[in-house]
Amino acid sequence: MQGQKNTVFVLKEPEALPHHYDMGWEYFLPGDQVTVSLAGGETMKGVVSDVMPDGSAVWIRANGGGRRLFGLHDGAEIRVTAAVPRPNIN
Fold first, then answer.
1. What pLDDT is recorded for position 24?
2. DSSP-assigned states of every residue in the chain
């Protein structure tokens, strides 16, 4: 098989590929209690209100305040302090 080219695919438009984010935010569930640490040193506690399916952003209802949207590029670190029960997936 000399002279035969093996090409799996040619990627002409890489920006057309779906994005995947690795922050783990897509695993949050509404009702999870969280602590948010912001880049400037500010912290806040709240409850997850909603999560983008791809994990690119999460809505947090602050304890004693309103809702706030955090995106991947905001430099926030969000940690679950008390999780709601997860579905049992087998």
1. 80
2. -TT--------S-GGGSPP---SSGGG--TT-EEEEE-TTS-EEEEEEEEE-TTSSEEEEEETTS-EEEEEGGG--EEEEEEPPPPP---
